[in-house]
Amino acid sequence: MALWGGRFAEPSDHDLRALNDSIGFDRRMWRQDIAGSMAYARAIAAAGIITREEAESILAGLEVVRGEFESGAFVFQAGDEDIHTAVERRLTELIGAVGGKLHTGRSRNDQVATDFRLWVMDAIDEIDGLLHSLQAALLEKAQAHTETLLPGYTHLQPAQPISVAHWLLSFFWMLARDRERLRDARRRTAVSPLGSGALAGTPFAIDRDQLAKTLGFDTCSSNSLDAVSDRDFAAETLFALALAGTHLSRLAEDVIIYSNPLFGFIALDDRYSTGSSLMPQKRNPDPLELARGKSGRLIGHLSGLMTTLKGLPSGYNKDLQEDKEALFDAVDTVKLLLPVLTAVIRTLKLDAEKMRAALGDDLLATDLADYLVKNGLPFRQAHHVVGQAVRAAQAAAARLSQLPLDSLRQLSPLFAEDVREVFDFDAAVARRSAAGGTAPSAVAQQIEAAKALLSR
Amino acid sequence: MALWGGRFAEPSDHDLRALNDSIGFDRRMWRQDIAGSMAYARAIAAAGIITREEAESILAGLEVVRGEFESGAFVFQAGDEDIHTAVERRLTELIGAVGGKLHTGRSRNDQVATDFRLWVMDAIDEIDGLLHSLQAALLEKAQAHTETLLPGYTHLQPAQPISVAHWLLSFFWMLARDRERLRDARRRTAVSPLGSGALAGTPFAIDRDQLAKTLGFDTCSSNSLDAVSDRDFAAETLFALALAGTHLSRLAEDVIIYSNPLFGFIALDDRYSTGSSLMPQKRNPDPLELARGKSGRLIGHLSGLMTTLKGLPSGYNKDLQEDKEALFDAVDTVKLLLPVLTAVIRTLKLDAEKMRAALGDDLLATDLADYLVKNGLPFRQAHHVVGQAVRAAQAAAARLSQLPLDSLRQLSPLFAEDVREVFDFDAAVARRSAAGGTAPSAVAQQIEAAKALLSR
Amino acid sequence: MALWGGRFAEPSDHDLRALNDSIGFDRRMWRQDIAGSMAYARAIAAAGIITREEAESILAGLEVVRGEFESGAFVFQAGDEDIHTAVERRLTELIGAVGGKLHTGRSRNDQVATDFRLWVMDAIDEIDGLLHSLQAALLEKAQAHTETLLPGYTHLQPAQPISVAHWLLSFFWMLARDRERLRDARRRTAVSPLGSGALAGTPFAIDRDQLAKTLGFDTCSSNSLDAVSDRDFAAETLFALALAGTHLSRLAEDVIIYSNPLFGFIALDDRYSTGSSLMPQKRNPDPLELARGKSGRLIGHLSGLMTTLKGLPSGYNKDLQEDKEALFDAVDTVKLLLPVLTAVIRTLKLDAEKMRAALGDDLLATDLADYLVKNGLPFRQAHHVVGQAVRAAQAAAARLSQLPLDSLRQLSPLFAEDVREVFDFDAAVARRSAAGGTAPSAVAQQIEAAKALLSR
Amino acid sequence: MALWGGRFAEPSDHDLRALNDSIGFDRRMWRQDIAGSMAYARAIAAAGIITREEAESILAGLEVVRGEFESGAFVFQAGDEDIHTAVERRLTELIGAVGGKLHTGRSRNDQVATDFRLWVMDAIDEIDGLLHSLQAALLEKAQAHTETLLPGYTHLQPAQPISVAHWLLSFFWMLARDRERLRDARRRTAVSPLGSGALAGTPFAIDRDQLAKTLGFDTCSSNSLDAVSDRDFAAETLFALALAGTHLSRLAEDVIIYSNPLFGFIALDDRYSTGSSLMPQKRNPDPLELARGKSGRLIGHLSGLMTTLKGLPSGYNKDLQEDKEALFDAVDTVKLLLPVLTAVIRTLKLDAEKMRAALGDDLLATDLADYLVKNGLPFRQAHHVVGQAVRAAQAAAARLSQLPLDSLRQLSPLFAEDVREVFDFDAAVARRSAAGGTAPSAVAQQIEAAKALLSR
C-alpha cells in the first residue's frame, strides 16, 4: 500500500508505478533509512510526541527489519514504492498501528535527503580509502625508481629527461587534490535535513541538532525549503568523482601508450591484461582503457544531474528522484576501477633499459641553451642558436652530441670544449633540484611530503 | 573459460574480471548474438570454410541455445565474460569442438558491433511505435478541442489566445521530427560490420552483402578498420532520444504549470497522480516531473558517450564497451516514459471554463494594433499607441476593452466605435488562418496533415 | 616573431596561425602576465642568473609595457601568438636583447599556468563580492517579509503556507554554499606553478616559495610535471559557477512563474522587464529567463572542459589551450547575471494580497492530520482520514474548513469543535518553529545567522 | 530605441541591457535578416497589407542598408538591441515612418528563427565543402599508399598489418557519415517559420509557401507555436558538428602518436608544426592537439544548448537566445580546424621504412591460426595453440617465425614445412580481400566507391 492513498478515488496505473517507483535502486539505502528512522523515533519520543513505550516498540521493530535486511530475509512487496515505504510497511506488519506514528512530522522529502546524504558520506569515506591505496601504490613504486630515467613528453614529443618516480608522483598529487575535494564535498554533505518536514519545517519540538549529531552529521540545515530540494552535495560529489576520473584516464593514456611495443617502457602483469578472441598474440591493457572510457561515463552523469537540477521550481520536485542512480553508478564505477588500477601499478613491470634507450640527445637541447646562457648569451638568442644546431644535426643525420665543435662554434663562439659535459642525462636531471623538480634530491623531498600526507 | 587464454601464464585477477566483464549488461543482446552467429555459420559454410554438416550441427546447437534463453533455462557460468563467450561456450558444450569453428575469421570486434546494431535497430522500431501512439493521443485530444481557447504564452506571460488543439499539436510536430531523426539514425545503423574481422577484414571468401541482407541490414560497411570502432549510430540514436526527451520535458513543464490550481487548466487523472507521505491533500504530477527530470539523464548519457569516443586511437579500444549501458538505459527510459505520457494525454481533464476565464483583454493588444494598421497607421506606431493604451488601462485599473473611446482617441484619432469588435477572442483566433496558424480552419488543415503522417 | 623559430626551415602556415594563436583571448591576462614576469625577473636576479642592473632594466621595461596596456596604447603585432610573446616582444623592443634573458629557465607551460591561476583567483574574488551583494539583497527583502505568507509548493502543487522571507532565504543558503565552494576552489587555485619549467623543473636555483608569496599564491606546486598540465582549478571553478548557475535558474523559475498574472505574486520593475516587438501589452521577465537559459551554457562549458581534459597524456598538451575561453565566458556570464538579479530582487514588487488569496484550506491538511495525532491517532491513519476529508470536501465543492463537523466525525470520532482552530494560516506557520522552519521565530534566527555570515 | 517602449513607464536599466542585448553576436546574421525582410515586404505587399509603392520604398531602403553592411559603413546605435532592431531602425531613418510597416504581422519570434535557420543552412553548405576537401585529401593520400603497410592496432597493441590507404580511408567514411548527417540536419532546418507571428500565426493573408520558397527554404512550418520555439535544427547541427569533432579527434590521436619518434611513422610539415619557447628541439603537432581538444568544446556546446532547451514552457522564451553563440562558435571552430587538417593530410610525410620495420611477426599470429584451421583444426583450438607458440617464442626471446618447426609441432602436429609461407606481411594483407578489407584489391574498390561519393 502506498503511504498516501486516502485522497485518491482510483489506484495508480501499472505503467505509472513502473515509472515512478524508486525501490529498484533506493533499496540499497536500507541501512541509512533504518538508522534515520531509529534516530527519529528517539527524537520524537524525547519531544513527547510518542511515549517511551511506543518508541521502544518502534526501535525493536526496526531492529528486526534491519536484521531481515542483513540476513537477506527481507521480502519486498508489490506496493513498496520506495525504501521508506518498504521499511514502514514492514514495521507496521511487525508492531501494528503504532508503526504509523513514526512518520509524525516527517516527510519523505526530508527522509530521503537524510538517507541519501548518509549514503554519500559513507561512499566518500570508502572512496577516500581506495584513493589512499592507489596513492600508496604510486608512492611505493616511485620510491624504487628515483633514478630510473625516461623521456618526459610534452605534446607527446620528447621534451626533457625525467625520473620514473617523478612521473608516477605526478599522479599522486592529482589524487591528493581529489581526496581534498571529496573531503570538502563531504563537509557540505554532512548537514542534516531531518526535521524539515515536507518543506516548511516541523511543528513538533524536535531537537534537530541532537538528531543530526546522533546520525553522524556535523550540523543541521538552516532553511527547510532549501533542505528538501538541495542536491548540491550529490552534484559536488559527482564532480569530484568525474574529475578523479579524468586523472585516472590520464594515467591510463600514459600506460597504454608506454605499453605499446615501440615504446615498451611498461608491461602489464598477465593478471591485468586480456586477450583477443581472434588474435592469439594479443595482450591488451583493458583495465586502463576502461579507466579512460569510464571517465566519459562519469562526466555524463555529472552533466545529466546538473541538467536535471536546472530550472526546477522551489521545493521538492519529483525530478530530484533522478539524483540517485547517477551517483550510485558513479560510486560503483570508481569503486570498480580503483582496486584494479592499484593492482596494476603495484604489478607494473618497468623496462629501464628501453626507457634509457629512448633518451635522445635532443632532450638536452634546453640544457645546451642553458650552457650558452651561463656563458652570457641571453636565453632567447641561446634558444635560437640551439634550434639551428638541432636542425644542423638533423641535416647531417647526426646526434646532437656528435656535432663537431667547429660546427657549433659557427653558430655561436660561446661554445667550448666543455660543451661535451652537457650531454649527460643524469646530470641534467640532477640539476632540476628546485622544489618540485625531477632531480633525485627534489624527488626525495616530494616523497617525504607524500608520505606525510598519507600518514595523516 | 575465456576465449583467449593460450598466450597467458596467469589467469585474470578477480577484480579485473569484475571490471572487465560485460556479461552483466550485454546478455540482453542474446537474441541478436545468436541470430548473428547463425547467419555467420551459414556464410562460412557457403564459403566452404566449414562443411555443410558442421554448419548444420552448429545451427542445431544454436537453436538449442536460443531455446534455453527463451525459456529462461540458460545458465551463465563464471567464465562467461560476455554474451559472445557465453553462447560459444554453451554451443561447444552442446556440440563439441566443432563449435570452435564458428569463430573462424570472426572477431568479437565485428561480432559485438553486429549484435549492437541489430539491437539498436529493434529498439528504434519499438520507440517509433511508442512515439506514434503519443502522437495519436495528442491528435485525438486535439480534434476534440479545436475551438477551446486558452491563453497562449511567450515568456510565460499572456501573449495571444490560441486553441487547445493548436497547443497540443505543437508537440505532435516535435515528435514527428523525433521520429524522422530516429529513422535517419536507423538508416545509418543498418550497415553490417560482420566480416570485418578484428580490424583488417577477413581472409575468408565470405559474401558480406548476403550476410548483411540475411540479418536485416540494408548494406555492409566499406572499411573494416572503421567498422569495428564506429559507434556513430549509438551516439546518433542517443542524440535523437535525448532531443525527444527535451520535447517531453517541455510538454511536462506546460502540464505541470497548467495543473497548478491558480491555473487550473488541467487535471491529471487519479491513476497518473501521486500523493504525499506527509500532506494528505496532495495530488502531484509525478510522471510529468519524471519526464522533465529524465531529460537530464538522457542528455547526460549522450554527453558521456561522446566524451568516451573523443580522442580514441584507431581500431577497437575497450573504451567502446561503455557504449551499451548508456544506450540501453536511454532506451529503457524512453520506453518507460512514453506509455505513461500517452495515457496522461488520453486521460487529461481540461477545464475549458478556467481557460476561458484566464483570457484577458491584453491578449488582444496585437489585434488592437492591427486595427490601427488597417486604418492606415504604420505598425510600429500602432504598437506604441496600444502600449500606451495598455498602460492607461492599468493605471485606471480597468480592462483594456473598458477604456472609454475618448481616452483611446486621445492616443490616436484612428480609433472609432468599431474598435469594440476587436475584443472578441474567438474572432481573433479565427483571423489567424494562414498556414500553421491557430484558427480553427488552419488547425483543421493541420489535423489533416497530422492524420496523413500517422497513417503513412 | 615566434619565440621558437630556430629549429624550423619554414614559417607557420597562415591558417595554422589562425587556429593556433591564443592572443585573441589570452590578451586579457596581460596584467597577470606582466606581474608574473616582474616577480620572475626579481627571482632570477636573486638567484644570480641575471645581474641587478639587468633586472632593473627588465622591470623598468615591463613597467612601460604595463603602462601601455593600461592606457590602451599597446599595439599588438602580427607575430604575437599569445600574450607571453606579445609582452616579451615589446619588452625586447624597449630594452634590447637583455629582454631575452627574462625567459631563462621559464617555459610558457609554467608561465601560462601562473597567469591563468592569478586571473582565476581575481575572478573568484570578484564573483564572491557579487554573490555577497545578491545575498544581501535577498536578506534585506526577506527581513521585510517575515510575516507575509504565500503558498509553499512541492511538485508545483500547493503544499503548506510559508513566509516570503523563508522562500527568499532558501536562495540565500544556496548562494552561501556557492561562495564556500568558490573559496575552496580558490584555495586549490592559489598554488604557484612558476619554476616548473616546461615539465621537469628548473635547473636554476630559484626560491619558488618566495616567488609564490610575491605573486599572492598561498603555496607552490609539489611536482613540476603535474604543475604544467593541472587544470583542476579551472574545472573546479567552472563547476562552482555552473552549480551557482543552477541556483540562479531555480530562483528564476520561481520568479517567472510567480510573475504570471494567474499567480500575480510578483511584479518585476519596468527597468528589468522587456517588451515585445509585436505584442504591445507584453512585460516579459527576460533577465530571469536568461539566468535560467545561461545555466545551460555554464553546464556546457564544464562538460566541454572536462571532456577536453579526458584521456590526455602526461605533461602539457596543446589541448589545454581550450581551458581559457570556457572559463572566461563562464566568468563573464556570471558577472553579467549577478548585478541584474541583485537589482531584480531589490526592486521586486510583492503582492501580499494575491499571495494571501492563494492560500487554500488544503494547505492545512497536514495540520489537520497533526490535530488527530495530538488526539492520539497514529499519523499514518490520521493522514488517511484527512485524505478522505479532502476528497469529501472536493466532492461537495466545499472548502475543507467548511466541512460540517458531523461529516468529519464520520471519518474519525477524534474530531471535535476545536478543529476549527486548525484553519489559521498564521498559526500554522508559527508552529513550524524548530530550527530552519518557516515560523517567524525560526526565521528570525535564520536572519541572524545570515547576517553573521555576511559580515564575516 | 527599443521596438516596444510604449507600455513602459521607465527605460531599461543599463545592466539589464548589457545582459539582454544580442546585437554583439546576432549582428552576423545581417545578411539573412535583410533577405528575410525583403521577402517579407514583398509578401505583405502581395497580400495587400502595404501598397506596391510602400513595398518599393522599403525594398530600396533595405538595399541601402545591405550596402552599408557590405561596405562596412553601417553604424550601430546604442539602442540597437539586436540585428532586427538595428535594421528596422536604420530603415526608418532612411525612408521614414513607412519603415514601421515592415513589421506588420511579424514578430521577432518568427523573424529570428527565420534568420537563424537561413544562417545555419549557409553554414552547413560551407562546412560540407570543407569536409569534402578533407575527404579528397585523405583519398588522394590513400591512393598513393595502397601497398604501404603499417601495423594495425587494436587497444593500441599490434594487431594485424594494414595498408596506409586503408587506415586513411577509415577516416574518409567517418566524414562521409558526417556529411550525411549534416545533410539530414539541413533538410530539417530548411523549414520556414516566417508568418508564424509571435506564436499564434498571422491574421494577414500571407502566402507562406511562396515566402518560404523565395528565401530558399524547402517548405514552411506546420504549427506556429512550435515554429517560434523549435531549436531542434540548432541542436541537431551542433550534434553533427560535435560528432564530426570526435572523428577529427580520433584522426588527431593517431597522428600525434604516430609522430612520436619511437613510432616515427609520420612527420608533420614544418608549416604545420610549432616549437617551444623553452626547448629548442621541439616540433609539436599543435593543430592535431587542438583538433582533439576542441572536440571537447563542441560536445560542451551541444550539452549546453540541450540543457538550455530542457524544461522550457511552450512558446518563445528568452532562454532561446542562448542558441546562437553556441552554434556560431561551433561553426567557427570547425571552419578553423578543417582547412588546417586538410593541409596537414596533404603535406604529411610518411616514413614507409619505419612502418615496415614496426611489423612484427606477432601481427601474423591470426594467420598462423588460420593455417591450422585450413589444416583442419577448429579455430578455437588453433587460437590456443598459436597463443602458446607466441608465449614460447617470447620465452625464447625469439621471433615467432624463428621458432623451430619441432617446437611448433610439439604444440600441434598439423604444423608442416609450409608454415614458413605464413610469415609474409604482404600476402597476409592481400588475403583480406573481402569487401571492406585491407587487401589492395579491396582497397581499390573502396577507392572507387570513395571517388564516386565525392563526385556526386
Provide the fold topology.
Four copies of one chain form a homotetramer.
Chain A: H1 14-20, H2 23-26, H3 30-46, H4 52-71, H5 83-95, H6 108-143, E1 149-154, E2 157-163, H7 164-189, E3 191-192, H8 208-215, E4 219-220, H9 224-229, H10 232-259, E5 266-267, H11 286-309, H12 323-347, E6 349-350, H13 352-357, H14 365-374, H15 379-395, H16 405-411, H17 425-431, H18 440-455
Parallel strand pairs in A: 3-4
Antiparallel strand pairs in A: 1-2, 5-6
Helix pairs in contact in A: 3-4, 3-6, 3-8, 4-5, 6-7, 6-12, 6-18, 7-10, 7-18, 10-11, 10-12, 11-12, 14-15
Describe this structure in words.
The structure is a homotetramer of 456-residue chains. Chain A is built from 18 helices and six strands. With 456 residues, chain A is mainly α. Chain A has three domains: 14-104, Fumarase C, Chain B, domain 1 (Orthogonal Bundle), CATH 1.10.275; 109-204 and 219-357, Fumarase/aspartase (Central domain) (Fumarase C, Chain A, domain 2); 361-423, Fumarase/aspartase (C-terminal domain) (Ribonucleotide Reductase Protein R1, domain 1, Orthogonal Bundle). Chain A has a two-stranded antiparallel sheet with strand order 1-2. Chain A has a two-stranded parallel ribbon with strand order 3-4. In chain A, helix 14 (365-374) crosses helix 15. The longest helix of chain A has 36 residues, at 108-143. Chain A is elongated and about 100 Å long. The two termini of chain A are 50 Å apart. The mean pLDDT of chain A is 96. Chains in contact: A-B, A-C, A-D, B-C, B-D, C-D. Chains A and B meet through helix 1, helix 6, helix 11 and helix 12 of A and helix 1, helix 6, helix 11 and helix 12 of B.
